[in-house]
């Protein structure tokens, strides 16, 4: 028998009829943890309930929302309601009639416990935070290759500092394998010596979707990384364990990119300003030296002429003084000499002889005492203009 | 010498040049060094270009990604 093909609406209507007629599904009590909570402006509440393995989409119509309901992500709740199909998109949901809050959900408890444990071990301590390089050359990005986070990161880097190598290690950012993937990626990039900084990123989501970033193995891997890690997980208010243990936390993937690189324009401007400043300082210095030199030259010109003039006058005076002194000395010496000459002349035997006296020499020696003479001695009698040789024949003393 | 080290030295040179006591000869040497550093920094800034690669999941080799594709 050939079956008639049904329309989608007919299929969905059929499923809905089965679901709503099921005695268990029609009156159900369920407990689970609140996630993906959205309170619509219409007053209807949309959320998921989940446990460790599974989740179910839920809706509470405005009329069934208790006035004092204070729902939060991660709260453990007990609800009653029925399962039905939303025919428009073929999805089934739990339509909640009543809800009771039981307490904080398991994931939130786990989060708090792990956070406290790691904090006590010192994994969040400031002293272990590595410095983020100010101008990285190679940035490792650990994220999903297809996620918006990667697009945001590359957009920011290409706008802000298009001078780096971005090396993407693609990982699953949610799900069972995600944490192992991330740990492997961190380890892999750490073996690449040239990576300067790692951005660990994924976009926003519920606590379940971000859960890999709350896992202990991921936290320990981040802590052990030799390369500084910027966590850029979630959106603004989402905090994960990875954020606490990372070297720097960015509120979004875009912000992570922003703090991982400097602004190229700022760097360019600073460098050019430095060059201009250096030129100016140097020119001023040279100008100042030149000015000093010109001024010194001017001073030198004036002094030189004056000094030469003074020196010339001084030299002239000295010469004159020396001449005068010499002349005076010459006159004195000449007079003295004349006087001495005159005296000498007066004392000269010649002058005595000129007056008619004679001198007696014996053996070329002037005889001053007759006692030096003996009979028979040959003597010379010296006149002014003649010498008479005589022989002594007689010596007679005269009283 | 990387950019940060070069830029830091350039700042030190400017500071030294601003000192009154430094001789003209020394100033000239510092200025020449400063110009060399400026050119070096400039070259470092100009030479690099944004390159995006990903590690292949199978071979772990780097594969270039076109920025438009992201």
Automatic annotation (TrEMBL), chain A:
Domain called Exonuclease VII large subunit C-terminal: residue spans: 123-329
InterPro entries: Exonuc_VII_L (IPR003753), Exonuc_VII_lsu_C (IPR020579), OB-fold_nuc-bd_dom (IPR025824)
Compartments, as annotated in UniProt: Cytoplasm
Family: Belongs to the XseA family.
Source species: Tepidibacter hydrothermalis
Main function: Bidirectionally degrades single-stranded DNA into large acid-insoluble oligonucleotides, which are then degraded further into small acid-soluble oligonucleotides.
This protein's UniProt keywords: Cytoplasm, Exonuclease, Hydrolase, Nuclease
Catalytic activity: Exonucleolytic cleavage in either 5'- to 3'- or 3'- to 5'-direction to yield nucleoside 5'-phosphates
One MF annotation (Gene Ontology) recorded for this entry: exodeoxyribonuclease VII activity
Protein name: Exodeoxyribonuclease 7 large subunit
From TrEMBL, chain B:
GO MF annotation, one: exodeoxyribonuclease VII activity
InterPro entries: Exonuc_VII_S, Exonuc_VII_ssu_sf
Top-level taxon: Bacteria
The keyword Cytoplasm is assigned to this record: yes
Chain coiled-coil ranges: none
Catalytic reaction(s) noted: Exonucleolytic cleavage in either 5'- to 3'- or 3'- to 5'-direction to yield nucleoside 5'-phosphates
Keywords: Cytoplasm, Exonuclease, Hydrolase, Nuclease
Any one Pfam family match given in the protein's UniProt record, by short name: Exonuc_VII_S
Entry EC no(s): 3.1.11.6
Cell compartments where the protein resides: Cytoplasm
Main EC class the enzyme belongs to: hydrolase
HAMAP family (UniProt xref): Exonuc_7_S (MF_00337)
Function: Bidirectionally degrades single-stranded DNA into large acid-insoluble oligonucleotides, which are then degraded further into small acid-soluble oligonucleotides.
NCBIfam families named in the record: xseB
Quaternary structure and partners: Heterooligomer composed of large and small subunits.
Similarity annotation: Belongs to the XseB family.
Alphabetical list of PANTHER family matching this protein: EXODEOXYRIBONUCLEASE 7 SMALL SUBUNIT
Protein's name in the database: Exodeoxyribonuclease 7 small subunit
Natural source organism: Tepidibacter hydrothermalis
């Amino acid at each position: 028998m050939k079956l008639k093909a049904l329309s989608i609406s007919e299929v969905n209507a059929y499923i809905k009829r089965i679901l709503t007629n099921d005695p268990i599904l029609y009156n159900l009590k369920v407990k689970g943890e609140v996630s993906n909570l959205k309170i619509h402006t219409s007053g209807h509440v949309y959320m998921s309930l989940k446990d460790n393995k599974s989740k179910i989409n839920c809706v509470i119509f405005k009329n069934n929302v208790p006035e004092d309901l204070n729902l939060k992500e991660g709260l453990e709740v007990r609800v009653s309601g029925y399962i039905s199909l939303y025919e428009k998109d073929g999805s089934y949901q739990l339509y909640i009639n009543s809800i009771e809050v039981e307490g904080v959900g398991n994931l939130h408890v786990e989060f708090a416990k792990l956070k406290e444990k790691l904090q006590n071990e010192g994994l969040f301590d400031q002293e272990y935070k590595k410095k983020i390089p100010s101008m990285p050359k190679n940035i490792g990005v650990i994220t999903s290759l297809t996620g918006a986070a990667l697009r945001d990161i590359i957009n920011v880097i290409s706008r802000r500092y298009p001078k780096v190598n971005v090396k993407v290690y693609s990982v699953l950012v949610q799900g069972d394998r995600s944490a192992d993937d991330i740990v492997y990626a961190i380890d892999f990039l750490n073996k690449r010596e040239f990576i300067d900084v790692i951005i660990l990123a994924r976009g926003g989501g519920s606590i379940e979707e971000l859960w890999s970033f709350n896992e202990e193995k991921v936290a320990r891997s981040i802590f052990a990384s030799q390369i500084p890690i910027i966590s850029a997980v979630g959106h603004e208010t989402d905090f994960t364990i990875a954020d606490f243990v990372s070297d720097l936390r960015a509120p979004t993937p875009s912000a992570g990119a922003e703090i991982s690189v400097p602004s190229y324009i700022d760097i360019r401007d600073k460098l050019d300003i430095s060059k201009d400043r250096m030129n100016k300082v140097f020119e001023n210095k040279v100008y100042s030296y030149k000015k000093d030199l010109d001024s010194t030259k001017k001073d030198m010109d004036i002094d030189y002429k004056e000094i030469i003039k003074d020196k010339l006058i001084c030299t002239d005076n000295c010469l004159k003084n020396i001449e005068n002194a010499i002349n005076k000395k010459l006159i004195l010496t000449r007079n003295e000499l004349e006087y001495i000459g005159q005296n000498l002349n007066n004392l000269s035997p010649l002058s005595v002889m000129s007056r008619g006296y004679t001198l007696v020499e014996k053996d070329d020696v002037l005889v001053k005492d007759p006692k030096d003479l003996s009979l028979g001695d040959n003597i010379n009698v010296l006149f002014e203009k003649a010498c008479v040789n005589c022989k002594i024949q007689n010596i007679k003393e005269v009283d | 010498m990387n950019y940060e080290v070069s830029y830091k030295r350039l700042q030190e040179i400017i500071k030294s040049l601003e000192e009154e006591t430094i001789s003209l000869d020394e100033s000239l040497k510092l200025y020449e060094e400063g110009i060399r550093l400026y050119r070096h920094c400039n070259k470092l800034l100009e030479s690099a270009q944004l390159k995006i690669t990903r590690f292949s999941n199978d071979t772990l080799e780097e594969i270039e990604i076109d920025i438009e594709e992201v």
